[in-house]
Design brief:
Length: 127
C-alpha cells in the first residue's frame, strides 16, 4: 500500500491527518503495522492527557513485539479510537482508515509542517 500524499509522517512511523475542525488524527503507517504483525492489544492514551512531541503516548502489542507510539506534535488527546480496545486488528486491516489511533488538539497546528511528506517518509524507509 502506498502512503497517502495528503498525510504527514514521522520517522517513527506515525501518520497525521489535519481535520476540518483543526484536530489532528493519528495512526501508524501500513509499513509499521506490517513490521509489527498481527496486533492483539492497544493501550490507548486517556482523553485530556497532554504530551510533548516525540513523547511515548501509547503502546501497541502484537504477536511479535510491543511497540511504543509517539506523539507527533505537542498537544492534548481529544479522542481515542475505542473500537481498538476490542478489535486491535483494525490497525492491520485498515491502518489509514478505521485503524486510526487517536485525535489531538495541537498546541500549534503549524508544527506538522516539519513532519515528512509521503515521499520523504518512503525515502527514509530505504535509508
Amino acid at each position: 500500500m502506498s502512503n497517502p500524499n495528503s498525510l504527514k509522517y514521522a520517522e517513527s512511523h506515525e501518520w497525521v491527518r489535519v481535520e476540518d475542525t483543526g484536530e489532528l488524527t493519528v495512526g501508524i503507517t501500513d509499513h509499521a503495522q506490517d513490521l509489527l504483525g498481527d496486533l492483539v492489544y492497544a493501550e490507548l492514551p486517556e482523553v485530556g492527557q497532554r504530551f510533548s512531541a516525540k513523547e511515548e503516548c501509547m503502546l501497541l502489542e502484537s504477536v511479535k513485539a510491543a511497540s511504543d507510539i509517539y506523539m507527533p506534535v505537542n498537544g492534548e488527546i481529544a479522542a481515542v479510537n475505542s473500537a481498538l480496545e476490542d478489535s486491535p486488528e483494525l490497525i492491520n486491516e485498515d491502518s489509514f482508515g478505521e485503524g486510526w489511533l487517536f485525535k489531538i488538539q495541537p498546541d500549534n497546528k503549524s508544527d506538522i509542517e516539519s513532519m515528512l511528506s509521503a515521499e520523504a517518509y518512503e525515502t527514509s524507509l530505504d535509508a
